[in-house]
Amino acid sequence: MSQTPKIGALAVVLHQDQVLLVQRSKEPDLGLWGFPGGHVEWGETVLQAAQRELREETTVIAIPSRYLDNLDLLRWDQEGQVVSHYLLVGVACDYQAGEPTAGDDALDARWFPLDQIRQGDLPMSARVVDLLEHALRADQAPTRPLRRT
Fold it and tell me: 121 lies in a domain?
């Protein structure tokens, strides 16, 4: 049987100098804080998956606006064999409405001040700070109009 990486979408939502995170209720990363997200379903785009997972895990509504970055997440057992392989795609989402309430696959969901995340004193999944900083840089970059050919 051939194995292939699983694709996951992460919704990065910034609002009023805060970022939305969820506390994971399942492995991997049980109990750690990270961006809402999950598997991309068959026939679904990564942007659609980010929006759906965000709503399922937090009840917050946001519109996916752009891809941010790809994160390879590989985990090995004690013998050095790969036990899980994910390609996680960070998606910037523009907040529309809702207050976070933990839903599917989340123990908790809440807004955190950006400075608190940057300090790193919250138990977080790998690369949360990196992806947050990427999103903040992308927010400040000038937008270019789409060129029509």
Answer: yes
